[in-house]
Design a protein that fits this description.
The protein is an alpha+beta fold. The protein has one domain: TATA-Binding Protein, CATH 3.30.310.70. It is built from 6 helices and 6 strands. A 6-stranded antiparallel beta sheet has the order 2-3-4-5-1-6. The model has no long low-confidence stretch (mean pLDDT about 80).
């Protein structure tokens, strides 16, 4: 009789473990696809970069932009014709996100944007700060909302992919 209870307990624990593993796998796949935003641009590669830079500067963001050119073996296996990395930082949001001591949200600053061209298609990718902000405390919600509103203005000319 005790062996029947042990078997049921073991099967119950095995089912619980399988459920946890399946839940984690679904969560990882879902989070990966929801954190990265990707857009398609109707403009040329240089015009897209210039438009993003001017939109960001108009909203008060400091912009650092540089082309990324792989060298050596990586150049042979390059999947994009042109790659431009744009770093954005806004002093006001940075101060707000760092103001909470050990609860600060350093991961949200700065914002990195990648503009790349594959054949004729020009694409823009970046981390969705609104999705990332859900993992942080409420203290940073105002700053993250501001960042997200600015991103909507900066990327307003792009089509969601």
């Amino acid at each position: 009789m005790t062996s029947i209870y042990r078997t049921r307990i073991l099967w119950g624990l095995a089912g619980l473990l399988a459920g946890v593993i399946a839940s984690v796998a679904v969560l990882v796949v879902t989070v990966r696809s929801s954190i990265i935003d990707e857009y398609q641009s109707s403009l040329s590669f240089p015009a897209t970069v210039d438009q993003i830079v001017s939109n960001a500067q108009a909203r008060g963001w400091r912009v650092t932009s540089h082309p990324l050119e792989p060298t050596g073996e990586a150049a042979l296996e390059k999947h994009a014709d042109h790659i431009q990395v744009i770093h954005l930082c806004n002093n006001n949001y940075t101060e707000d996100l760092l103001a909470f001591g050990h609860n600060r949200s350093v991961a949200m600053v700065p914002s990195t944007i990648v503009v790349y061209q594959q054949g004729p298609a020009v694409r823009v990718a970046h981390v969705d700060n609104a999705a990332m902000g859900r993992f942080f405390r409420r203290e940073s919600a105002g700053a993250i909302r501001g960042v997200r509103n600015d991103e909507k203005e900066i990327f307003g000319f792009l089509a969601k992919r």
